[in-house]
Amino acid sequence: MQLRYAFRLYPDDSQRGALARAFGCARVVFNDAVRAREDARAAGAPFPGAGELSSRLITQAKQTQARSWLGEVSAVVLQQSLRDAETAYKNLFASLKGTRRGARVGAPRFKSRKDNRQSIRFTANARWSITGSGRLNLPKIGAVKVKWSRNLPSAPTSVTVIQDAAGRYFASFVIDTDPDADAVRMPGSGQSIGIDLGLSHFAILSNGTKIDSPRFLRRAEKKLKKAQRELSRKQKGSRNRDKARLKVARAHAQVADARREFHHQLSTQLIRENQAIGVEDLAVKGLARTRLAKSVHDAGWSQFVAMLVYKADRYGRTLIKIGRFEPTSQTCSACGHRDGPKPLDIREWTCPACGTLLDRDINSARNVKRAAGLAVSACGAQVRPEPVLAQRNEAGSLGFPPKAHAA
């Protein structure tokens, strides 16, 4: 499988200027491609192909006085920008046809130099390289200093240079992983576990372990409010406002980086220790519209589960997502008795059927494991509830028949 390895870049002043020119040229070519497509749509003409756009927007544009500065950057950067526009339209059409999974995708928008993220991509054709001293040598930019936090497992196929909202530069390498090396690095395990994600505790495991929620955003809230207040008092268009904006962006970047590092460490630990993992498929978008929105975003459940997904795929683990409507907090994990929903303030209760004292979170984690088919009965057999057909009044909504789903 392909993964990305990101490292911090520290360009000097001349290299910053060269990167700014490359970002600008790639942005202009992308906007020209979107404009050409939109003009063709408005005129009722067929969309221009990739070859026609490359010839018109890059090769011929370099010969004109208005676009002669496109020759100051690598041609590969401009070609990759056209590919990005082509991919954006393919995603749009696939979303309209219903062949693309996930949320609906809108039409590509014009990029701005004020966007929070600027990026350019170099493929092998650009002849970029890593020097003997550990610098990243980019065409028409130079040898940029890299902070190597780890070794690359194999030769990268491409590199993307990114500038984020905080003004930091990163090099993102695309790496093809080696399954044999991954198997040696993380051998198989005979353990399995269920995970219940929450807010008071970030994760509760079926073995009784409770992992506290770091609450990175809540802890940095005072600092963020002060930086945002200083930004609001600066005059628009002034240099002091730009400095204050960078201060706010850096504060948010610190929170995001700390949360991402916590998710990486915890997900790697769980993948290393367990061969199979069960986790609940939470409706994060719905929860983010409630009064708990800030806490839900602070936890970052979606990012954590996404890490579990790709790491399980990489290291040969099994990750099972159970349905979000599974009554994990209503069912006794000891006897299976279901006694209905309970308010959030009830954290412990005694099962009326078997008399077991249940912890709400640990009980839910054990039920997640059971629903994922990872629990083992006394005779050693896998325990998984038998599938039950949906009733007629459950399959549809508002009295309408159920919709047909694409395979």
Description:
- With 407 residues, the protein is an alpha+beta fold.
- 40% of the residues lie in helices and 18% in strands.
- Strand 13 (348-350) and strand 14 form a beta hairpin.
Keywords:
elongated; alpha+beta; 5-stranded mixed beta sheet; 7-stranded antiparallel beta sheet; 12 helices; 407 residues
Q: Can you summarize the main beta sheet?
A: 7 strands, antiparallel
Low-confidence segments? 376-407
Give the strand order of the largest sheet, numbering strands 1, 2, ... along the chain: 2-6-7-1-5-4-3
Share in β-strands: 15-25%
Distance between the termini: 25 Å
Shape: elongated
> How would you name the oligomeric state of the polypeptide chains in this document?
single chain
Helix content: 40-55%
Order of helices and strands: EHHHEEEEEEHEEEHHHEHHHEEEHEEH
- Number of distinct beta strands: 16
Task: Give the topology.
Elements: E1 2-10, H1 13-43, H2 50-59, H3 75-97, E2 118-123, E3 129-130, E4 136-138, E5 142-147, E6 158-163, E7 169-176, H4 179-185, E8 192-197, E9 201-205, E10 210-212, H5 216-219, H6 221-232, H7 239-273, E11 276-280, H8 284-287, H9 293-299, H10 301-314, E12 318-322, E13 348-350, E14 357-359, H11 360-371, E15 375-376, E16 382-383, H12 392-395
Parallel strand pairs: 8-11, 11-12
Antiparallel strand pairs: 1-5, 1-7, 2-6, 3-4, 4-5, 6-7, 8-9, 9-10, 13-14, 15-16
